[in-house]
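Reviewer comment 2.1 asked that we show a complete input and output for one of the modelled complexes. We chose the EPU case, as it is the one discussed in the main text.
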Amino acid sequence: MSRLIISGPYKFNDEIYVQGAKNSILPILASSIISRGECIIRNCPDILDVHTTIEILHYIGCKVKFEDSTICVNSENIVKNEIPEDLMRKMRSSIIFLGALIARTGRAKISLPGGCELGPRPIDMHVSSLKQLGVSVEIINGCLDFKIINKISEANISLPFPSVGATENIILASSICKGTVTINNASCEPEIVDLANFLKKIGVKIYGEGRNQIKVQGANKFHGCEHEIISDRIVATTILGAAATTGGAVTLKGINCEHLDTPISVFEEMGCFISKEKNALKMSAPEKLLPVKEVRSMPYPGFPTDSIPIMTACLCTANGVSILVENIFKNRFRHVEELCRFGANIKVEGNIAIINGVSHLFSSNVEAKDLRGAAALLIAALKSHGTSTISNINFLLRGYDLSKLIPKTIYKLEL
Ligand code: EPU
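Response of the prediction step:
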């Protein structure tokens, strides 16, 4: 079993260039197949989910090169429109190949995606939206077979919830529509804007990205492009969380401060001092953090669900009681039991975590259960005195390039 051995405590006093966003690079890599040309994508993080996506691209016939944070995808010759179950199961974002394959080949054969066990993660919104665009779906031997019936039709789709993945799949499938597709109650996340900017470069017309109504006008000619991935706001929040918890200071570089507005206000409530510069942010933390009244996760621009576990770790040693409310995923607090092994005092009631700050954490041996929960355990290990071990650390490596997060001298990785 993979594991990470950490010597704590580690007080941050670093300048860190934040890696490219996982939730941008994955859909952008998938949609590069629509271009039928060569796409050069910069600022790519070296994380497991990127390697899994490259495996899928190779499988369907693309030539891919990953060197020095630049990925070059050549998708002139796609030879397959199906994705094997073992690759689908490795990560949730494999579902974005659905819209990309439909747009490129008219057909996509996939099984249900895997990913972190954050609770039920159905794809009903993806399926019903694609049906409205003129795509049929059949279930054959547990495999979903999607086909364009005639053509991708103009449509006015209203999502019951601003799902990130469903918005992405609708945009991708609509990229070949002869006419306009309107998406109401679309996701407004910065990663949707990044995907739209990439698609515009390969020839698709998109309007309204970043707002809740998006319009897509398809194209019949596409071409390769160059694109740079935005920085990862969840990784940025993780670093801020680690610096805040350990009473340190940190400068984040290469970021868009606007994407961090809600986490920044929470860190300020915790007593941290933050100053924003162009594409950079400086934070220094007090010796003891203040508790927060209540943080609720919401779709962007609300507080991100992916940063809720990070806050559970930060608030473990705050000076009082804090409340976190998770509104997106049912099983966001699976890591809490493990945080308690460090000495944290947290009670979970349904979708609410009540955190009673303790004076200190002690080192422990714990097990990661999902990606952001693993990041929370890492923060707790950095705060504790002594050596801690986090097993199942592959969860963390799905989304974090550890070598760019903490100094190599304080950890040992066993894969
Ligand atoms: N949902 C449905 N039906 C659907 C689709 C979604 O009920 O057809 C529900 C989900 O079960 C969930 C909610 O809607 O309760 C939100 O899901 P959404 O579709 O927005 O999430 P996603 O596209 O599966 C992306 C990120 C997640 C992030 C969420 C929410 C990627 C690859 N993943 O997932 O990131 O938590 O949006 O912001 O973009 C992570 O990076 O650790 C991660 C889990």
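The chain is about 30% helix and 25% strand. We note this here for comparison with the apo prediction described in Section 3.2.
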